[in-house]
Amino acid sequence: MKIAKGQKILFIGDSITDCERARPIGEGLYGGVGKGYVSLIDALLQSGYPELGIRVVNMGVSANNVRDLKARWETDVINQQPDWLIIMIGINDVWRQFHSPFIHTSHVYIEEYESTLRELVKDALPVTKQLVLMTPFFIEANRQDDMRTTMDQYGIVVKRIAEEIDALFIDTQAAFDSVLKELYSASLALDRVHLTQAGHMVLARAFLNKIAFEWSKD
Amino acid sequence: MKIAKGQKILFIGDSITDCERARPIGEGLYGGVGKGYVSLIDALLQSGYPELGIRVVNMGVSANNVRDLKARWETDVINQQPDWLIIMIGINDVWRQFHSPFIHTSHVYIEEYESTLRELVKDALPVTKQLVLMTPFFIEANRQDDMRTTMDQYGIVVKRIAEEIDALFIDTQAAFDSVLKELYSASLALDRVHLTQAGHMVLARAFLNKIAFEWSKD
Amino acid sequence: MKIAKGQKILFIGDSITDCERARPIGEGLYGGVGKGYVSLIDALLQSGYPELGIRVVNMGVSANNVRDLKARWETDVINQQPDWLIIMIGINDVWRQFHSPFIHTSHVYIEEYESTLRELVKDALPVTKQLVLMTPFFIEANRQDDMRTTMDQYGIVVKRIAEEIDALFIDTQAAFDSVLKELYSASLALDRVHLTQAGHMVLARAFLNKIAFEWSKD
Amino acid sequence: MKIAKGQKILFIGDSITDCERARPIGEGLYGGVGKGYVSLIDALLQSGYPELGIRVVNMGVSANNVRDLKARWETDVINQQPDWLIIMIGINDVWRQFHSPFIHTSHVYIEEYESTLRELVKDALPVTKQLVLMTPFFIEANRQDDMRTTMDQYGIVVKRIAEEIDALFIDTQAAFDSVLKELYSASLALDRVHLTQAGHMVLARAFLNKIAFEWSKD
Amino acid sequence: MKIAKGQKILFIGDSITDCERARPIGEGLYGGVGKGYVSLIDALLQSGYPELGIRVVNMGVSANNVRDLKARWETDVINQQPDWLIIMIGINDVWRQFHSPFIHTSHVYIEEYESTLRELVKDALPVTKQLVLMTPFFIEANRQDDMRTTMDQYGIVVKRIAEEIDALFIDTQAAFDSVLKELYSASLALDRVHLTQAGHMVLARAFLNKIAFEWSKD
Amino acid sequence: MKIAKGQKILFIGDSITDCERARPIGEGLYGGVGKGYVSLIDALLQSGYPELGIRVVNMGVSANNVRDLKARWETDVINQQPDWLIIMIGINDVWRQFHSPFIHTSHVYIEEYESTLRELVKDALPVTKQLVLMTPFFIEANRQDDMRTTMDQYGIVVKRIAEEIDALFIDTQAAFDSVLKELYSASLALDRVHLTQAGHMVLARAFLNKIAFEWSKD
Amino acid sequence: MKIAKGQKILFIGDSITDCERARPIGEGLYGGVGKGYVSLIDALLQSGYPELGIRVVNMGVSANNVRDLKARWETDVINQQPDWLIIMIGINDVWRQFHSPFIHTSHVYIEEYESTLRELVKDALPVTKQLVLMTPFFIEANRQDDMRTTMDQYGIVVKRIAEEIDALFIDTQAAFDSVLKELYSASLALDRVHLTQAGHMVLARAFLNKIAFEWSKD
Amino acid sequence: MKIAKGQKILFIGDSITDCERARPIGEGLYGGVGKGYVSLIDALLQSGYPELGIRVVNMGVSANNVRDLKARWETDVINQQPDWLIIMIGINDVWRQFHSPFIHTSHVYIEEYESTLRELVKDALPVTKQLVLMTPFFIEANRQDDMRTTMDQYGIVVKRIAEEIDALFIDTQAAFDSVLKELYSASLALDRVHLTQAGHMVLARAFLNKIAFEWSKD
């Protein structure tokens, strides 16, 4: 188990992360960490390792792209001084290219995405002990699908940056692909983005496996 | 223009048709015909042919499949005595096979779909002057996609029944495919089913072209 | 078809234009362009010419008169840099003279209307490629009706300004008069101002015919 | 003053009468008599003739036509045993012919209107001491307007029936016409039917003048 | 009739005046003048003297005492430049002495009441053509009742100030006493302050009689 | 202390008793006994005599008069099998004679009040161990006030019946009169009926003193 | 892994199970299985074993005790024909003895609890393939606490019945005790009954470990 | 009775005090003092000593700890100039250590608690006539319970400070312990903090007994 006693782990991202978390800081009783994968991770950590006293904080904001993260990075990440920082961003950067193709100003193309994400990651390095980069994903089994192809390119960017800074890297798309061999996309996300509870559990399991969570620990 | 002066045309179907229509009868001022393609057709008929006095009625009900239509056919179709009857059903029959694959009781497989639809159509024949059958559709350009493939099979059933009884037949899937050559599915329907206004307009145009609506008539 | 590939067309006006559009900018998914004639034009452009990538923006504000447009012209028109600008204003300028005759401060008489509208149009000329001026209207067939007579005078002002700057001119009153030969005013607008969907379609068709929209194009 | 001590006067009609009255019986504190002309009459009677102990009851129901009155006549009129019965009906009978011209089943043409109203009046004669018939009205100064012309015909029917049974007759249209000489229709009713408070006061004054209410009585 | 053509008359006071009027200025369609006696006066003026074009403005604010009027006098009275100014204030000044006897800071005793009201009236004199002072009231027939006795003292103050500046004076208490000879207080106001519609009509009639409104004028 | 271990005491009455109690049975956590004097009695019994396990049930219903009690007596009193039954009714029987003087059908005059109350009390005698009759009250210090005078007559009826059946009798009016020597009615009840928390405490203390509650018991 | 391909597993219980599940049948998209431990189990089964097609149904109802289960057993359990049936009941049977000690009729004492639960279990045996009995629990580390002691007795009953019929048995109290060694009760449930997400995860893990769920399976 | 005629007594604390009091100042009609023990004390003072004219003010704020009191001490206490000041704080200081053990920044440990409380008390001394310090409490009979043990320590601090400054001291925990001998904690507070009405009455009685309230005074 890679998370140490008393550490604070902060998740940042878009609506997949947000899920009605508390404002301004997403923690505490009464659903402070939201209702998505962050909540599942928190519940598994508290029930599995109560003795570790891990503090989970959710700073996701619905509809965010990497530009939006940049605008609130100082306040919502650096100032929070997390021990762990987990970033999953990019879905909106890509999605708007497909659902609103004519509103170019709302698109974040791959060069801007890469340079901005790299900048954010480098800003965070000095103040965190461990960085985790999760790819964005698209719940579509067909790799030739236009939006899937694009999302995969953004995932490659995430992987490249993770390698550059030696962060933990989680290929969420690969985790979903494993389920999509058995189930059609609609059973995980009607719009192929906003996940059912099962979809959120795929993310939670991918994260916990990466940090060597012991499932059978009593 | 195939609709004659004073005729009553009734649309029946699922949520694509319903779109918040009035209850129990979907007609009249204040959005009685809902906010979807039926409303667009109504607006084009009233503004284009005000002298014809065409009465449009919307009897769509969200979440309906062909089984649900059967249960309310007497009340909502036969008793209304429409001159024209337009049917578009099948999306939920197929969709639940994909988004809730383990709840078999909610699925309507193709044999039941075909026999039920044929029965409904034959019941309606004696009381209407003109039947129009519209295929169900799936806003997905990839014809190898599992759900698209299935939906196409249901569309073939609709075509077969239309030919048997010599009804007007509208291939809505073909109409959407024409747009999907240019645009990704998300810009017409985020979940590939529930349409934007542009998506509803595709349906309205397909219908009106089929009945020889003169667009440039003043 | 006069609108070129990739152009941005912006509509500005009052409640007839507004119709619950998104704020601060009226565009995007989920009804960003509102529920009125702008939405119908957008749907017809997207479904009819998906390959053109036309971006429609709705900047109407309910209850606005030409004075209100002036107050937000810089922000809501000039700064948006539209290729096309479509203006329909004047109904409230006139209506309040009739429904609140004693509140003189709320009236905009014809001299102020003309000079203000001319000023706005001239300010917009340098930053747009094409201007379209639509008359205000009153859904009343009787041309001797006091408010109709007044509204017709405001329409003449619009026409004069359109001619001065060689803008496209749309006589919306004439479009409605054509329908009012067949239908009583109440079926288009109970209060002779706020339109049913059929009323909005009259506007959409008038606009699209003016820009040479090909209705039967596939 | 024609209303005697302790009498119960009951108003029946459509939305002009209803105005959010209490259900099932429209009387009592907290706005039981609604917010329209019935409320004004009640307030003038209580403040002007407190010693008479007049009981006012409002049984109007929004959207009602004469057919709807017939369906609830026994319950809402006969069983209430009013001393005075005031009837104002017909606006919806006419209006729907104009705002929903193609939905013929919602129209009540003049023959049905006359025979039904006569039947209702005759049923009420034995159980009431005084009947008052008020014409329906349309807030439109132009007597050549199609809907105004039709409404005037319905008003003539009301007058004829009032004469047949020697009821008090109130020409509400004439009362409004007197104001419409000075003011445009919109200042009394934007849709020419649903009245402002000033419009309701026109009705209240017409009624009270007919029953010899002494305005200056202290 | 003392109000001249085109004059603007402004009412200021507390909850009896306010009655849900529009903000910031209480005038215009859709109940802008509220639902109380100001609305009744407006309705009677518009329906009785439509040719005069009288503009009624309601600036009452619920819970106000004379101190609160002072705080907003510049904005809500002087800047509005009314031709007529009608003031009715004092109920809360007194009432709180009785319902919250221990919260002394909320009471306005008679010396402060008199000096403040006189100051406000004198400030308004130069900018108005006619001032009307209405007494506060208490719906209680028993003149020995403590709160009634106190309210009567405040009414005497109002009368004195009216005489000093030669304003029109309306003894609202006397108007209510006339009704209270016949009816128990509860039928005009359950809490002896907040009036039923009949209670508001008593005020409206007292005002209109004072300005020589011709009730029977056609 | 007259209530014995484990006894169930049931209160029945009107809005003074009801105060948002639970339905259908007014007991249990989360405010089941309402927010009025019953709740205060319950709180004092539980905190003062926790060892007695007294079960308090509130069956008051807002707007009830003695007629209404009769209609639900079997269900709401007899079937509940209370050890103690406390009745306080009559305020609405009297009040409506004063706030709605012309709606005679809503009045319960003293003969009907007495005979009905006697009948109810006698029906309850066999199934209860102790009956308590509380007078209705009116928060008005002036005994010559018309409504006060009437209410006092109803209180005399309650006393007479209590004596006939040897029930405990509580003169609530006397308890309030004691406070009204010091405070004006408005500080206990703005409308002289619906009590502030202090007013409810007067009732609670009157009841508890009657049953020999030991206030200083620890 | 003990659950076989295509099996239907049904959970029944109280508010811990319910958690806003769909009505009448708790399954399907959009949170049909609620937001508690059943939802977590469903998410883990779908994400971990998508190939098995397991159908999870939640039939919990808030506030239920074993008596309530009996009343709906035929409809909600037998008629549903589940392959697996998981029962967790008893918290309300015990809790009401402690939070409402004087309302004896709401208590279910241990003899009735045992006989009723045994009867329900035996009724279900013929129609299910596998029964799972989960103990009720109380989130309190102190085993001498009165309510904890009582709850433990009810847990022993559950264990005894599970042994009699050879059902799977889950000691939820033991699972919580393991966490309570590290954390104070309030961090799992403020009222020691209604669980945080971490508390629900304790239940989900206890269940899944019992059925040999492979956590690290990919 | 220690409170003198005309004195103002101000309560400050957390959610136990707040209970929906009015903002910004918690006093006046319509529940201004909230619905908790402050309201009960106010009701008992007004009904028991109406001649004293005691003014009760509630300045509690839900979720406050002693740090929060410090932040608003000037505004909410010093500036209010109360004669009596009653402080009950500390529950949230302790509770968060137990329900959110990992969010250390939300905890107020005992040293900070003591020094802050002493500072606040000393600041208030010069401006008040009488200080009352009430201990925080935890509704748990078991003194070995971790949170109870901690809360008792905070109570000792309160006692020490009270003795230092010779304030009145109320041991609320002792008052509750007396009831907890008879009743299980859940009947006073499901979460052992937020009280039922009976729980609030325990506080009210403890306070009133301390100030020599005469319960049997008439």
Automatic annotation (TrEMBL), chains A, B, C, D, E, F, G, H:
Listed InterPro entries: Ester_Hydrolysis_Enzymes (IPR051532), SGNH_hydro (IPR013830), SGNH_hydro_sf (IPR036514)
Domain SGNH hydrolase-type esterase: 11-200
Name of the featured protein: GDSL family lipase
Origin organism lineage: Bacteria, Bacillati, Bacillota, Bacilli, Bacillales
